[in-house]
């Protein structure tokens, strides 16, 4: 028995959440009330399909149709940001982080894989710390590369995706879920977010192509501000099902200096589960 216990204590593979901080969460009733408000504020008002959703289950009955946006290569990158924990559920990110604060923090979905002790070793400085959260090795993030059909250049917020000439452009989001590790050999976030003008379009040229076939569906913009009201924006989503490892120090460097004015992780919107708010594709 002692030998068995020693083996458990010295193993080099740990659950990704081994060192996760624990926060008090609101009750299930709070989340249920938010979902009820979302239904009340959208029913019969013509809202299109909403996001985020479970990408492993694409059933839905929303009847508001819109055409899929062009491929990202034929649109302009307008914004990059990320959320702490995945907003979507599915693939390798199906572990529920809990109800969280009720306003988008400490909720969402987490990587279900295993990480080593070295990958989970603490950093020497705070990363992305604000009044709501902080980033640690082992944390899951969902990165959103937002594209617009408008003639725009990358910049802060969704406003960068609009122009004076086109207020309702087609929107596409390429989504990649990452897990933060303390490992210099992992992916470099600065490289992942690199953009250039390619063929006349603003492009993020290093979006991963080795994280599974993207699940495409029609939805909306996300974020906790839409927990109780519908998003009016129509978005074509491509969500990759596999999680990749990224060096947390490169995320820290990016947060200190980027063209999007991003300095922390965003909160998550409640997973949309009402079939009337989900597309049928």
Written account of the structure:
- With 281 residues, this protein is an alpha+beta fold.
- The chain has 4 helices and 12 strands.
- The strands form 4 sheets. Strands 2, 6, 7, 10, 11 and 12 form a 6-stranded mixed beta sheet that branches.
- The longest helix is centred in the first third of the chain and has 15 residues.
- The protein is globular, with a radius of gyration of 19 Å.
- The N terminus is likely disordered.
> How much helix is in the residues?
10-25%
Q: Can you summarize the main beta sheet? A: 6 strands, mixed
Outline type: globular
- What's the assembly state of these chains? single chain
Strand content: 15-25%
**Structure summary, number of beta strands:** 12
Q: How is the topology of this model organized?
A:
Elements: H1 2-10, E1 13-15, H2 28-42, E2 76-84, E3 95-96, E4 109-110, E5 114-116, E6 140-148, E7 171-181, H3 189-192, E8 195-198, E9 201-204, E10 215-219, E11 235-239, E12 244-247, H4 248-256
Give a brief rundown of this model.
With about 280 residues, this protein is of the alpha+beta class. It has helices at about 1-10, 30-40, 190, 250-255, and strands at about 15, 75-85, 95, 110, 115, 140-150, 170-180, 195-200, 200-205, 215-220, 235-240, 245. It is about 15% helix and about 20% strand.
């Amino acid at each position: 028995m002692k030998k068995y216990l020693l083996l458990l204590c010295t193993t080099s593979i740990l659950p990704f959440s081994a060192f996760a901080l624990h926060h008090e969460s609101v009750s299930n009733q709070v989340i249920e009330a938010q979902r009820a408000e979302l239904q009340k504020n959208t029913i019969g008002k013509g809202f299109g399909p909403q996001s985020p959703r479970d990408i492993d289950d694409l059933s839905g009955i929303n009847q508001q149709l819109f055409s899929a946006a062009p491929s990202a290569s034929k649109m302009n990158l307008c914004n990059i940001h990320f959320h702490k924990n995945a907003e979507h559920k599915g693939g390798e990110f199906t572990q529920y982080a809990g109800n969280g604060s009720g306003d988008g923090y400490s909720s969402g979905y987490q990587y279900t894989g295993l990480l080593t002790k070295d990958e989970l070793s603490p950093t020497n400085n705070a990363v992305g710390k604000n009044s709501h959260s902080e980033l640690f090795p082992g944390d899951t993030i969902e990165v959103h590369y937002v594209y617009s059909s408008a003639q725009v250049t990358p910049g802060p917020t969704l406003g960068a995706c609009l122009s004076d000439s086109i207020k309702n452009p087609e929107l596409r989001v390429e989504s990649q879920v990452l897990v933060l590790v303390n490992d210099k050999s992992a992916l470099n976030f600065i490289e992942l977010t690199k953009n250039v003008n390619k063929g006349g379009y603003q492009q993020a040229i290093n979006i991963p192509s080795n994280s599974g076939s993207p699940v495409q569906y029609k939805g909306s913009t996300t974020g906790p501000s839409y927990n109780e009201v519908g998003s009016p924006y129509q978005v074509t989503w491509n969500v990759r099902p596999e999680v990749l490892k990224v060096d947390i120090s490169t995320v820290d460097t990016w947060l200190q200096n980027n063209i999007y004015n991003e300095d922390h992780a965003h909160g998550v919107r409640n997973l949309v589960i009402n079939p009337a708010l989900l597309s049928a594709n």
